[in-house]
């Protein structure tokens, strides 16, 4: 027995040592392999401003003198595994940023395991159901907008074109998470993949349905509030050849909140978009109606805080500064009806209007109106607030008709010419009671001259004429680029038509930038007009400032 | 005995990983995005028969992006003939503008492969901060270069790199 046991012990030692040897080599190899299969990616941004007091434009003294925003994203991917983290820093936040951003911290971390069929995410995640009418979490770092979820997300992709997504979590508000719990499920089915006889059809149809519910305890002494609020949405996308239709309807149970004045009325939203396009021609018609559809995971929040859903503005997103920052439209969450039409056309080369290089024209018309509502005096029964007509429209909030022509004149000269006519209800859009409606005409010429392959001078001349608000404006921009590394720009915005001659001010700004691959550094000096700063369709009001601005971005 | 089992287990796991693992760290990550008809598309399936790929992030509301893609469009036919390159234009437009992507692209008569990343999932996976942002993928499917923003004339440098890639040369 003893020898046996000795033998067995000997065998064991041999086994263990050989295994550990093989383990060591395999381990090293395995770790190497794992490391070489894994990849870190990410980006970094720092914005820093030195502020100067400038009483003329209303730029106030900043006690800190220097303010900065910064963040670093790091994402690690290795096969089916993805992990990520973001560090954010506001010391203190730049002027115009939401006041809740103070200090430093890790604001985003997640791990996802995805094996083609099943995807599991724990921690933070961004997600959107359909067009986002009942659920969309997303970020606009440049505006400080971030309603990311913290919780769990499961996705399962079935073979037959069906995808199920389930989520549960809380939403981010600055460096914390909101009170409410958000749960939901979405199902999307591609009929062409699901029904075999339909698989070769030229008509492609995708249908989807989703439900979201939020829970927030009722701590209101005045009202008995629903602690659970449910919402549902159904959608369809039909595509055939040149034609595409995208429609979604959403409904929400009564959700008394500070947005709607604590009324017990259900909400609804409808979004329809039809497009037709073929080579050289494109057209889009869109309509949207949202009625009492503000949906937040905290009923007492306002501004952009803790929004669960996304109601897109149905207006053109302009890029030229007078059009983009003076009077841009912002969606009215409590209710609006909006229509939009877009047309894109290319006059071919060699035709009378096309000339030698062809000419592009685009037309856009957008209008947003209040709902046609009737106030209900039902204070003693159920507080329904108001009733609304589905089709009739109320007063105009916003109108925009614009046309843009893009034309290449020669190998060296190219121009983009824009005209826009705006109607803008300052009272409603900016919440300035009693402010008059603004009627404005805007004309812009954007001409590029190419000195050589790598040297281009771009000039923008913009004029905005209006009798209201601050009167007429003009902008001159000169931008000289030296590909691939340098750019130099000078901008002057001049409020030449202000009623008060003292306020006919120049807002000048000069900047220099250096780009190398995915790194970009720019420095600018000058005045920033108080206005509305928009990124990707979300806007925030920025106060006037003056000073030196440094921006560094990098992706890796 | 427990140690033994543990070692055996780890050895097997690591051997399997080592055997099945491939050098794919620099590949385009797999994220679900949309095609213009609204159907789902896995970015891991972006390919071009061993030829280089330009992956460009843009949006219908981004002037420099449109300027860049329109400038490339004038030369794109020649680029494809000479190098077999394919440009994938990844729009980051969200629900507000997603319906305008196809009409805009067709209106401009672009010949690119156009995909849409409406909630920024692919953008985040690749560490893209602002648009325009361009990646170059070599014939083996590896991301070998990236560039942020656009200055007129950058397209010439981009094409020089594409030519190198199509000849199988390294650009780093």
Question: Can you describe this structure?
Answer:
The complex is a heterodimer of chains A (556) and B (172). Chain A is mainly β. Chain A has helices at residues 2-37, 191-194, 321-325, 426-429, and strands spanning 39-51, 66-78, 81-90, 103-114, 118-125, 139-140, 145-146, 149-157, 162-173, 176-177, 181-190, 203-215, 228-240, 243-252, 267-278, 281-291, 335-347, 359-375, 386-408, 413-425, 437-450, 455-466, 473-482, 486-494, 506-516, 519-528, 531-535, 538-542, 545-555. In chain A, the strands form three sheets. Chain A has a 24-stranded antiparallel β-barrel. A two-stranded antiparallel sheet of chain A has the order 6-7. In chain A, strands 27-28 form a two-stranded antiparallel ribbon. The radius of gyration of chain A is 28 Å and the shape is globular. Chain B is α/β, with parallel strands linked by helices. Chain B has helices at 2-20, 63-83, 98-107, 121-125, 154-166, and strands at 32-35, 40-42, 53-58, 86-91, 113-116, 133-137, 143-148. A seven-stranded mixed β-sheet of chain B has the order 2-1-5-4-3-6-7. In chain B, α3 links the parallel β4 and β5. At the A-B interface, α1, β1, β2, β15 and β16 of A face α1, α3, α4, β7 and α5 of B.
Strand residue percentage of chain A? over 45%
How many structural domains of chain B? Answer: 1
The termini of chain A sit apart by 65 Å
Low-confidence stretches of chain A: none
Residue-averaged pLDDT of chain A: 92
- The percent range for strand residues of chain B is 15-25%
**Largest beta-sheet details of chain B:** 7 strands, mixed
Shape of chain B from CA axes?
Answer: globular
Total number of beta strands of chain A: 29
Helix proportion range of chain B: 25-40%
Measured distance between first and last alpha carbons of chain B: 51 Å
Total of DSSP H or I helical runs spanning 4+ residues of chain B: 5
Count of DSSP helices of chain A?
4
Question: What is the oligomeric state here?
Answer: heterodimer
Q: Which secondary-structure class do the elements of chain A indicate?
A: mainly beta
């Amino acid at each position: 027995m003893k020898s046996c046991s000795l033998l067995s012990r000997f065998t064991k030692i041999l086994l263990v040592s050989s295994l550990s040897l093989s383990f060591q080599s395999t381990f090293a190899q395995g770790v190497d392999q794992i490391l070489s299969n894994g990849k870190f990616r990410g980006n970094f941004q720092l914005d820093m401003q030195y502020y100067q007091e400038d009483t003329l434009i209303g730029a106030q003294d900043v006690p800190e003198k220097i303010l900065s925003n910064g963040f670093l994203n790091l994402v690690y991917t290795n096969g089916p595994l993805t992990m990520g983290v973001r560090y954010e820093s506001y010391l203190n936040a730049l002027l115009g940023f939401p006041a809740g951003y103070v200090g430093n911290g890790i604001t985003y971390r997640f791990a996802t395991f995805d094996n083609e069929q099943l995807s599991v995410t724990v921690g933070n995640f961004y997600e959107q159901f359909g067009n986002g009418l009942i659920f969309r979490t997303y970020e606009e770092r440049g505006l400080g907008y971030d309603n990311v979820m913290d919780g769990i997300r499961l996705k399962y992709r079935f073979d037959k074109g069906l995808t199920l997504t389930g989520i549960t979590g809380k939403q981010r508000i600055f460096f914390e998470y909101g009170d409410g719990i958000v749960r939901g499920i979405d199902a999307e089915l591609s009929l062409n993949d699901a029904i075999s006889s339909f698989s070769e059809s030229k008509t492609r149809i995708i249908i989807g349905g989703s439900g979201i519910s939020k829970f927030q305890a009722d701590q209101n002494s005045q009202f008995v509030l629903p602690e659970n609020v449910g919402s549902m949405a159904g959608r369809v996308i039909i595509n055939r050849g040149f034609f595409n239709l995208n429609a979604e309807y959403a409904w929400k149970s009564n959700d008394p909140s500070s947005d709607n004045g604590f009324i017990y009325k259900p909400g609804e939203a409808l979004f329809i978009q039809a497009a037709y396009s073929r080579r050289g021609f494109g057209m889009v018609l869109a309509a949207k109606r949202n009625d009492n559809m503000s949906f937040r995971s905290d009923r007492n929040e306002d501004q952009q805080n803790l929004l669960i859903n996304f109601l897109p503005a149905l207006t053109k997103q302009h890029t030229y500064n007078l059009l983009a920052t003076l009077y841009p439209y912002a969606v009215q969450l409590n209710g609006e009806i909006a229509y939009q039409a877009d047309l894109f056309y290319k006059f071919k080369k060699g035709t009378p209007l096309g000339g030698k290089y062809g000419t592009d024209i685009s037309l856009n018309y957008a209008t947003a109106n209040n709902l046609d509502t009737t106030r209900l005096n039902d204070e003693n029964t159920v507080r329904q607030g108001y009733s609304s007509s589905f089709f009739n429209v109320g007063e105009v909030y916003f109108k925009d008709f614009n046309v843009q022509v893009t034309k290449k004149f020669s190998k060296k000269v190219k121009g983009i010419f824009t005209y826009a006519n705006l109607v803008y209800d300052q009272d409603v859009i900016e919440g300035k009671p009693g402010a008059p409606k603004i009627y404005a005409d805007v004309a812009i010429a954007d001409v590029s001259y190419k000195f050589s392959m790598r040297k281009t001078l771009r000039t923008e001349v913009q004029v905005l004429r209006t009798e209201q608000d601050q009167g007429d404006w003009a902008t001159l921009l000169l931008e000289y680029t030296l590909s691939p590394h340098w750019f130099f720009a000078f901008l002057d915005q001049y409020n030449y038509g202000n009623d008060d001659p003292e306020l006919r001010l120049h807002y000048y700004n000069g900047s220099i930038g250096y780009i190398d691959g995915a790194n970009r550094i720019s420095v600018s000096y000058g005045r920033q007009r108080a206005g509305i700063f928009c990124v990707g369709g979300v806007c925030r009001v920025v106060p006037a400032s003056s000073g030196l601005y440094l921006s560094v971005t990098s992706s890796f | 005995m427990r140690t033994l089992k543990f070692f055996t287990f780890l050895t097997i796991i690591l051997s399997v990983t080592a055997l099945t693992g491939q050098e794919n760290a620099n590949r385009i990550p797999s994220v679900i995005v949309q095609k213009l008809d609204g159907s789902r598309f896995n970015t891991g399936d972006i390919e071009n028969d061993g030829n280089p790929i330009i992956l460009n992030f843009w949006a219908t509301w981004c002037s420099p992006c449109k300027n860049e893609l329109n400038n490339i469009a004038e030369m794109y036919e020649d680029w494809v003939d000479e190098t077999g390159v394919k440009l994938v234009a990844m729009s980051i437009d969200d629900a507000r503008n997603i319906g305008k992507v196809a009409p805009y692209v067709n209106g401009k008569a672009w010949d690119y492969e156009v995909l849409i990343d409406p909630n920024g999932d692919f953008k985040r996976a690749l560490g893209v901060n602002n648009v325009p942002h361009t990646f170059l993928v070599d014939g083996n499917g590896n991301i070998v270069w990236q560039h942020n923003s656009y200055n007129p004339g950058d397209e010439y440098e981009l094409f020089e790199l594409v030519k190198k890639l199509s000849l199988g040369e390294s650009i780093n």
